[in-house]
Amino acid sequence: MLTISAYAKINLTLEVLGRRADGYHEVATVLQAIDLRDTLRFEEHQGISFQCDHPSLSSLDNLAVKAARLLQESAGSRQGASISLKKGIPIAAGLGGGATDAAATLRALNELWELGLSLNQLLQLASRVSSDAAFFLYGGTALGQERGERITPLPPLPPSWVVL
After folding, report:
1. 42 C-beta neighbours (distance < 10 Å), count
2. Annotated catalytic residue: which of 38, 66, 101, 132?
3. Helix axis angle, 63-75 to 97-112, nearest 10°
4. What percent of the chain has pLDDT over 70?
5. CA atoms of 101 and 120, how far apart (whole Å)
6. 121 Cβ neighbours under 8 A, 6+ residues apart
7. Residues with Cβ within 8 Å of residue 74, at least 6 apart in sequence
8. For residue 48, is it within any domain?
9. For residues 153 and 103, what is the distance between their CA atoms, to the nearest angstrom?
10. Catalytic residue among 9, 38, 66, 101
11. In this structure, is residue 74 part of a structural domain?
12. Is there a contact between 10 and 96 (Cβ–Cβ < 8 Å)?
């Protein structure tokens, strides 16, 4: 069993640079991880199962489940996991709740299944799940470019209080 915290983020700046040919927007954004978090528990299991304490989240469209299935497929793994999610990040609040859960799932299952994927391999998978997911593999303070998935870590900001 593995339990992991998945932290929210705020966009300190956001510049929309235009629309890309693929329909996404080109952005430049400074992202900051914050202490607000979801908690995920992973256990080896047959197949992928998902439970959440928030009734409106189903396994059908959950990014953690999408990340788990993508990792299975990409690694050619038949291993499974039971994923339990305790929500602490408000849903649809622009704080990256789904994307941080996806990134946490990639990190946790890479460890639980002993796949040995590198950070670069996890980043490629994360960007296929969500534009924000790559940031959560780094955390801290970072510059997000392109759709937000190209991440450049920045020096940490001094501790601050933020009202959301």
Report:
1. 23
2. 132
3. 40
4. 100
5. 18
6. none
7. 125
8. yes
9. 16
10. 9
11. yes
12. no
**Is 53 a known active-site residue?**
no
The structure tokens 């996991």 sit at 81
Q: How many domains does the chain have?
A: 1
pLDDT tier at 59 (50, 70, 90 boundaries)?
Answer: confident
Predicted local distance difference test score (pLDDT) of residue 148: 87
Containing structural domain, residue 124: 2-153
Domain CATH code at residue 102: 3.30.230.10
Question: Residue 152 is which amino acid?
Answer: T
Q: Does 39 map to a domain? A: yes
pLDDT of residue 162: 79
Task: Look at residue 155 and tell me whether its pLDDT is greater than 80.
Answer: yes
Nearest in space to 148 (alpha carbons), one of 129, 134, 137, 158: 134
Q: Which residue has the higher pLDDT, 61 or 49?
A: 49
pTM score, whole prediction: 0.93
Spell out the alpha helix ranges (H) of the chain: 63-75, 97-112, 119-129, 133-138
In a domain, 62, yes or no: yes
Say whether pLDDT at 24 is over 80.
yes
Residue 9 annotated to the active site:
yes
Structure tokens at 91: 């849903």
Please determine, for residue 58, whether its predicted confidence score (pLDDT) is greater than 80. Answer: no
